[in-house]
Write a structure and sequence with these properties.
The protein is mostly helical. It contains one helix and no strands. The protein has one helix at 2-105. The model has no long low-confidence stretch (mean pLDDT 88).
Length: 120
């Protein structure tokens, strides 16, 4: 009976060692799967980033012409307005200078309306 009990204990110890090996292998498998998943996720993220950058570049290229044409239109409008302002300035500058000179040169001295006359 002692031999059989010793053999049963040895069988249990062997089974326990085998179970520990299986658990260790499962842990290693899980760690490897996590590493593989991270690597795959990194690749997918990089591919997605490249795809979005490509979409953005194509969007930017397609709308760059719109921006340039808008800039040209604004430049033309600005030039037209500048010419209008210059024409108005050239037309009115002589009148304005004359009015300013008349105001400065032709002074008519008079007493202020709030000044009371002194009675003597």
């Amino acid at each position: 009976m002692a031999g059989q009990s010793s053999q049963s204990i040895q069988t249990l110890l062997d089974a326990e060692k085998e179970a520990a090996k299986v658990v260790q292998q499962a842990r290693q498998y899980r760690v490897q799967k996590l590493k593989d998943a991270r690597t795959q996720a990194t690749k997918e993220i990089e591919e997605y980033r490249k795809q979005k950058e490509q979409q953005f570049k194509s969007f930017e290229a397609s709308h760059a012409g719109t921006t340039q044409s808008a800039q040209v239109a604004v430049d033309k409008e600005t030039e037209v307005k500048r010419k209008e302002i210059t024409a108005a300035y050239d037309k009115s500058k002589d009148k304005v200078v004359k009015k300013l000179l008349d105001r400065v040169v032709l002074v008519q001295p008079e007493l202020h309306r709030n000044l009371k006359k002194l009675e003597s």
